[in-house]
């Protein structure tokens, strides 16, 4: 696929932002300034101030001498970075690969995207129209390389589109500054009368390197496409991602359902081809007003069943607020796993364990009550009961050891033992009664003790003597005494409940 890049230049990025917030500034010349070595220096000037001869880097006192009515406001540190980051995230509706180009631009990898808008002209026109409508003075260009797109957006007559393979022709008449060269290099070029790129483009490379350094050759090669120029997306691209841009924004639940189904079908086809299944899927809905609606589902096992996944998303559609409409849907699978091919059965055995069906049932339940409401535990190699179990990562995870069946264990184990008051006839005997949460329980039956020692390599502490007791109502409890009566008054706790 032919690589194509778009460069967007916000000529008055900072001042435009102030004008958007305060429309009254639109007809006034103003600048943003900050102190430097005891003087206020102009950091950004709006269009009206520039027309009066006020430029970036000028001392504010000199600027006011040129224009006494000039309005001066304090520059907010880091504002340009924040603005570019926000604009880059907004631009993701046009392509998944958007990079920030400080201090006042964006670079977009638009390869394979423009046809969705009817071609590159309609594509770039849509970008410019929206940004200008928002209040930004903006120029843009598309070319085979980010370097050429950058040059045309800033130094071309009106920006525009460079036909594939025509970078050299587009650069001929532009000044050397269009190659993003450092100021000392530009000054040396100007001193020698090399005022456009044509004048040195075909000079011997060795002579150019000797006179102007490697940067000139690197920037020239990047602009011509001889050397690859990597760009860093503001949001990393998920390997498994599907996009659905829309010409007419969607506002209804039915439209959202159709979009989700199309995205899931396309995503699952890719997953099947690569032998993968997703564990987490994220739906991002880009609204017309620039806001993002996002919902996420997760599964207990890797799956590429689009019907099952749609049922999980269907539970969350009501939480999506389309407002004026959604113009782009993006489906991402940030967590994927390998899927083992399952052998087809020649016959169905009644009562057999259907792992897939159980996983899908758990996914549906989790979609209604939340994944935190479903837990699966496996035995763990620890003595203390609260450490003898652990949460399973998935439905397929196998236990490393077998569950203990030689000694009784409660169905419901408290994560933290709760203190109780007991009456004991003789030390090392089970209690006659105990008080738990304000209620007195008389013990009718008891069994024990079972002694469990602390694991000294994990923590220090007293041993425990556990008892299984049953009260007069038939309820059964798992109690323990921490320590013995020999050295001090021990403490009693309830740790679990039997069925």
Question: What would you say about this model in short?
Answer:
With 499 residues, this protein is α+β, with helices and mostly antiparallel strands. It has helices at residues 13-21, 47-51, 60-66, 79-90, 120-134, 146-155, 167-171, 183-191, 198-201, 205-212, 214-224, 253-273, 306-314, 355-369, and strands spanning 5-10, 30-36, 39-45, 71-74, 97-101, 105-109, 138-143, 160-161, 241-250, 276-287, 292-303, 326-338, 377-379, 389-391, 412-423, 433-436, 439-452, 464-471, 476-482, 491-497. The strands form five sheets. The chain has a six-stranded antiparallel barrel. A five-stranded mixed β-sheet has the order 5-6-1-7-8, with helices on both faces.
List the helices and strands and how they pair.
Layout: E1 5-10, H1 13-21, E2 30-36, E3 39-45, H2 47-51, H3 60-66, E4 71-74, H4 79-90, E5 97-101, E6 105-109, H5 120-134, E7 138-143, H6 146-155, E8 160-161, H7 167-171, H8 183-191, H9 198-201, H10 205-212, H11 214-224, E9 241-250, H12 253-273, E10 276-287, E11 292-303, H13 306-314, E12 326-338, H14 355-369, E13 377-379, E14 389-391, E15 412-423, E16 433-436, E17 439-452, E18 464-471, E19 476-482, E20 491-497
Parallel strand pairs: 2-4, 7-8
Antiparallel strand pairs: 1-6, 1-7, 2-3, 5-6, 9-12, 10-11, 10-12, 13-14, 15-16, 15-20, 16-17, 17-18, 18-19, 19-20
Helix pairs in contact: 6-11, 10-11, 12-13, 13-14
């Amino acid at each position: 696929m032919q690589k194509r890049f778009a460069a967007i230049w916000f000529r008055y990025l900072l001042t435009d932002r102030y004008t958007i917030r305060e429309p009254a500034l639109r007809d006034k010349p103003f600048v943003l300034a900050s102190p430097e070595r005891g003087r206020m220096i102009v950091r950004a000037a709006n269009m009206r101030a520039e027309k009066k001869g006020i430029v970036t880097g000028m001392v504010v006192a000199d600027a006011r001498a040129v224009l006494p009515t000039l309005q001066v406001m304090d520059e907010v540190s880091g504002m340009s970075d924040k603005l570019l980051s926000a604009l880059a995230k907004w631009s993701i509706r046009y392509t998944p690969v958007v990079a920030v180009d400080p201090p006042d631009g964006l670079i977009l990898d638009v390869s394979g995207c423009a046809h969705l808008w009817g071609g590159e002209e309609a594509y770039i026109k849509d970008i410019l129209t929206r940004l200008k409508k928002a209040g930004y003075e903006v120029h843009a260009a598309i070319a085979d390389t980010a370097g050429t797109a950058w040059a045309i957006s800033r130094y071309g007559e009106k920006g525009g589109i460079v036909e594939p393979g025509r970078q050299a022709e587009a650069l001929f008449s532009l000044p050397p500054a269009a190659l993003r060269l450092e100021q000392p290099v530009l000054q040396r070029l100007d001193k020698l009368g090399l005022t456009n790129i044509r004048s040195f483009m075909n000079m011997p490379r060795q002579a150019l390197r000797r006179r102007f350094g490697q940067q000139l050759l690197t920037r020239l090669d990047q602009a011509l496409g001889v050397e690859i120029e990597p760009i860093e997306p503001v949001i990393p691209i998920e390997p498994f991602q599907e996009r659905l841009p829309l010409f007419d924004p969607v506002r209804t639940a039915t439209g959202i359902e159709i979009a989700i189904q199309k995205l899931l079908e396309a995503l699952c086809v890719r997953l099947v081809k690569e032998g993968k299944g997703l564990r987490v899927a994220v739906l991002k809905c880009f609204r017309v007003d620039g806001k993002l609606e996002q919902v996420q589902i997760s599964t207990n096992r890797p799956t590429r069943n689009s019907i099952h996944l749609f049922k999980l998303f269907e539970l969350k559609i009501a939480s999506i607020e389309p407002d004026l409409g959604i113009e782009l849907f993006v489906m991402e699978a940030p967590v994927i796993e390998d899927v083992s091919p399952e052998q087809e059965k020649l016959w169905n055995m009644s009562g057999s364990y259907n792992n897939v069906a159980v996983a899908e049932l758990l996914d549906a339940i989790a979609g209604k009550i939340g994944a935190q409401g479903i837990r699966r535990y496996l035995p763990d190699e620890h003595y203390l009961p609260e450490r003898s179990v652990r949460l399973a990562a998935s439905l397929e995870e196998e236990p490393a050891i077998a569950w203990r069946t030689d000694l009784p264990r409660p169905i419901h184990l408290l994560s933290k033992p709760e203190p109780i008051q007991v009456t004991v006839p003789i030390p090392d005997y089970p209690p006659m009664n105990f008080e738990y949460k304000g209620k007195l329980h008389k013990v009718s039956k008891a069994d024990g003790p079972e002694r469990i020692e602390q694991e000294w390599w994990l923590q220090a502490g007293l041993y425990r003597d556990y008892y299984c007791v049953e009260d007069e109502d038939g309820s059964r409890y798992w109690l323990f005494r921490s320590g013995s009566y020999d050295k001090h008054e021990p403490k009693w706790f309830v740790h679990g409940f039997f069925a």
